[in-house]
Design a protein that fits this description.
heterodimer; A: mainly beta; five-stranded mixed beta sheet; four-stranded antiparallel beta sheet; globular; B: mainly beta; about 0% helix
């Protein structure tokens, strides 16, 4: 499985934008970039995913570098509820078959009031 | 919003006992997964299940583990003879590749404590 590299942790302030970086220099053409997060004592939660183009949804935006070797998850206005471990994961889209997620250590985001 | 539900939320068992963890995936989903997370460690893939059979399993998923979809709604993980190192949070997940959104839906987890 292709690997990603994230900082161990980041801090942000409430109501400010947060940019969470991820490097994935060995990404292949069929890998989708997924972001999940895990709030304390909860299961992982899908945030966003993309392939080549930048993506927006109600939770966040995903900016993907032109060469796809890095991406940035953008939380436009951090809230205390956004404090979590964020995982950047490469997921190969296959025809049929399972598409398991392989979680790394993730990056712990602390949001200061 | 549809959700994956898991029971029990917490189970305490003695080493060597059998444990069954239950999951109700989202109703129109076709792919089912079990993951585990030992306290303070990464979320680890155990097994995926599709069309009533295992489609992929990890090295962790040895002969002590089995999965079943007994009645078309529940998805169970059985650990035949628990060991101390099986203590972990176990997460069930599901998705529907027929309408691929990339989103894997996880349950809240079942905490297993083996004494």
């Amino acid at each position: 499985d292709a690997k990603t590299t994230q900082p161990n942790s980041m801090e942000s302030n409430e109501e400010e934008p947060v940019h969470l970086p991820c490097n994935h220099s060995t990404i292949s053409g069929t890998d989708y970039i997924h972001w999940y997060r895990q709030l304390p004592s909860q299961g992982p939660e899908y945030v966003i995913h993309g392939l080549t183009s930048n993506v927006n949804n109600r939770m966040a935006s995903l900016a993907i570098a032109e060469d796809r070797k890095s991406s940035t998850l953008i939380l436009h206005r951090a809230t205390l509820r956004d404090a979590a471990v964020y995982y950047c994961i490469l997921r190969e889209k296959r025809q049929g078959g399972s598409e398991k997620l392989v979680f790394g250590k993730g990056m712990k985001l602390t949001v200061n009031p | 919003e549809p959700e994956v539900t898991q029971t029990p939320s917490h189970q305490v068992t003695q080493m060597g006992q059998e444990v069954i963890l239950r999951c109700v995936p989202i109703s129109n989903h076709l792919y089912f997964y079990w993951y585990r997370q030992i306290l303070g460690q990464k979320v680890e893939f155990l097994v995926s299940f599709y069309n009533n059979e295992i489609s992929e399993k990890s090295e962790i998923f040895d002969d002590q583990f089995s999965v079943e979809r007994p009645d078309g709604s529940n998805f169970t993980l059985k650990i035949r003879s628990t060991k101390l190192e099986d203590s972990a949070m176990y997460f069930c997940a599901s998705d529907n590749r027929g309408r691929y959104t990339g989103e894997l839906f996880f349950g809240e987890g079942s905490r297993l404590t083996v004494l």
